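User: Here's a structure from my thesis project, written as structure tokens. My advisor, Dr. K., wants to see whether a designed sequence matches the one we expressed. Can you design one independently, without my sequence as a hint?
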């Protein structure tokens, strides 16, 4: 354990000041902790603290993300090898597979439409769940007209997904809103969203992730569109290149550990990013970094590059991220990226998002020069 004086001396040394602290340890601790507490946790111009005001202004410059061209090229070559030799790398999944037996393209579109809305903080395939085959048992779960008529259908569906927890009300609201949207615009069929948007994937994304309020973020919209294309439900060439790798904890972590995306310092804990500035920036830069890989891949001779960056998504987040590049339990020796990831970056972790709002959230923990404050568990 370092003492406060030792920490302060280390900081001074890092910024080029070789000085020893000569006052009593306890007295220096009092001064340091008082100043630290005021800087990080006492109100400033409408912000939680002076630090958070400073962080908003300077986080991008401090983090200073760079995309490493050499690492990007190595990854592009590796991905091309995998996509070009699917038999050789048969154990590596490059796209999600579903059991299509007995269900039509319309059915597939409806199932994916309603499950994509719920695809956050849960695994819809956990414990062997198969929503697509479940359609044959409970088709009403994916029928817009039935959903509008009977709230119990929504509850049963969310219960099946184990999604009735703290976000249950929000999920139910989104599902009913999504059903209403389909009935009013697409004859109740998610398949017809494609026709509504002139078979243009960019129009589909902009529509779903716009102001409909039915639970589709840009990431979820890209994921839904990707699956519709990969599963052969929709076919088009219009604006495919705009579909990004859906940035999440896994795709961020792989980007950081491969050295593809390089911040100037390891990312801060979410306690210091309560306005989500670091998280949002990392999210954007991760998508930018994977798109950079895709652009290099397209330029390789005789390449097997897919028509959209989004088609790399499953390989990155599932076959690399969730299977081998785990947060605290890496399986580097089993990973296809083992020869690419620099040793010095293999422990890097993705950022976490944290909400400033809520009954016991950071917003309620604001305080002033009177001290105290903070949050409760």
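Assistant: Designed independently from the structure alone:
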């Amino acid at each position: 354990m370092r003492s406060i004086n030792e920490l302060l001396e280390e900081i001074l040394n890092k910024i080029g000041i070789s000085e020893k602290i000569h006052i009593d340890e306890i007295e220096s601790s009092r001064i340091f902790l008082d100043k630290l507490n005021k800087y990080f946790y006492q109100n400033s111009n409408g912000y939680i603290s002076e630090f958070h005001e400073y962080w908003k202004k300077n986080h991008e410059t401090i983090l200073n993300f760079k995309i490493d061209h050499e690492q990007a090229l190595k990854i592009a070559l590796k991905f091309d090898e995998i996509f070009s030799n699917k038999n050789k790398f048969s154990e590596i999944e490059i796209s999600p597979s579903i059991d299509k037996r007995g269900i039509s393209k319309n059915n597939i579109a409806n199932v994916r439409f309603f499950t994509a809305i719920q695809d956050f903080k849960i695994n819809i395939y956990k414990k062997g769940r198969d929503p697509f085959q479940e359609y044959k048992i409970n088709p009403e779960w994916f029928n817009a007209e039935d959903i509008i008529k009977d709230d119990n259908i929504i509850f049963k569906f969310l219960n099946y997904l184990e999604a009735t927890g703290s976000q249950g009300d929000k999920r139910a609201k989104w599902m009913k809103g999504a059903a209403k949207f389909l009935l009013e615009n697409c004859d109740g069929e998610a398949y017809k969203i494609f026709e509504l948007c002139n078979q243009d994937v960019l129009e589909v994304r902009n529509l779903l992730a716009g102001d409909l309020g039915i639970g589709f973020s840009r990431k979820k919209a890209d994921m839904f569109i990707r699956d519709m294309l990969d599963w052969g439900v929709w076919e088009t060439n219009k604006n495919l290149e705009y579909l990004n790798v859906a940035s999440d904890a896994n795709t961020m972590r792989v980007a950081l550990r491969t050295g593809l995306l390089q911040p100037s310092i390891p990312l801060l804990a979410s306690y210091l990013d309560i306005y989500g500035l670091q998280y949002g920036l990392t999210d954007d830069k991760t998508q930018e970094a994977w798109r950079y890989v895709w652009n290099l891949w397209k330029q390789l001779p005789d390449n097997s590059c897919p028509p959209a960056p989004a088609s790399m998504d499953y390989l990155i987040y599932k076959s690399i991220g969730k299977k081998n590049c785990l947060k605290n339990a890496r399986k580097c020796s089993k990973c296809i990226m083992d020869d690419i990831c620099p040793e010095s970056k293999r422990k890097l972790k993705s950022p976490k998002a944290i909400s400033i709002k809520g009954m016991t959230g950071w917003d309620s923990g604001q305080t002033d020069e009177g001290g105290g404050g903070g949050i409760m568990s």
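When you compare it with your expressed construct, this may help: The two ends are 27 Å apart (CA to CA).
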